Amino acid sequence: MNGSRLAALMIALGLAGCGSSGNFGDLQAYMDEVRARPKGAIEPVPKFQPYESFTYSAAALRNPFQPPVKIDMVQRQKGSKEVKPDEARVKQFLEGFNIEVFEMVGTLAKEDSVYALVSGAGGVHRVKVGDYLGRNHGRILAIDESKVDVIEIVPDGEGGWLERPRSLSLKERS
User: Fold this and answer.
1) Which of 4, 46, 99, 142 is geometrically suited to a Cys-Cys bond with 134, CB 3.0 to 4.6 A?
2) Around 94, how many Cα atoms within 13 Å sit in the side-chain half-sphere?
3) Does pLDDT of 42 surpass 80?
4) Residue 53: CA count within 13 A, CB half-sphere
5) Residues 6 or more apart from 160 whose CB is under 8 A from it?
6) Is the dihedral of CA 125, 131, 132, 138 positive or negative?
7) How far apart are CA 143 and CA 146, in angstroms?
8) Keywords, A to Z (predicted)?
9) How far is CA 28 from CA 34, 55, 89, 99, in A?
10) Residue 166's closest CA among 142, 149, 154, 153?
11) What is the model's pLDDT at position 64?
12) 161, 82 contact by CB (below 8 A)
């Protein structure tokens, strides 16, 4: 019975400590302020500002981080009316791609024929002298172990055509 008396005494002391003898003036003032606020007043939703899109208009201009290109109109190469692509010729598969996507990756020799292996356009392709490559009517002139020589026929901008030599160098293993 001693244990139950001790428990009852502890409960009585605990309840006595919860009395209103403490100072709760600041809590009472806050509760009075909250109760004094008007009921049902909801703050209005902030006004939505619509997004204004921006169109960058300088995309077609020269890159400001590159030096300007000077074109000397007198020194510029003029095209001729004699040089022009054969429009009646049937286009080959590799003419549907820019020549910049191709790189030479090797050569093959079979009897007296030499072929170049060019990577690009979704795979590795075997080409020989006389084949066409690239969108500018590029015809392969020569193949050696280190490069493929191509001559392209491009418009000069004044109604004529120019022959422009290009080379695909052998890509070394990296």
Assistant:
1) 99
2) 23
3) no
4) 3
5) 78, 79, 80, 81, 83
6) positive
7) 8
8) Lipoprotein
9) 10, 59, 98, 84
10) 149
11) 82
12) no
Residue length of the chain: 174
Which tokens in the block code for residue 8? 């009852």
SS (H, E, C) the chain: CHHHHHHHHHHHHHHHHCCCCCCCHHHHHHHHHHHHCCCCCCCCCCCCCCCCCCCCCCCCCCCCCCCCCCCCCCCCCCCECCCCCCCCCCCCHHHHCCHHHCEEEEEEEECCEEEEEEEECCEEEEECCCCEECCCCEEEEEECCCEEEEEEEEECCCCCEEEEEEEEEECCCC
Please say whether the beta carbons of 103 and 120 come within 8 A: yes
Distance CA 2, CA 63 (A): 95
Could you count the other beta carbons within 10 Å of the beta carbon of residue 125? 18
Residue holding tokens 């400001």?
A: 64
Six token digits for residue 153: 């026929």
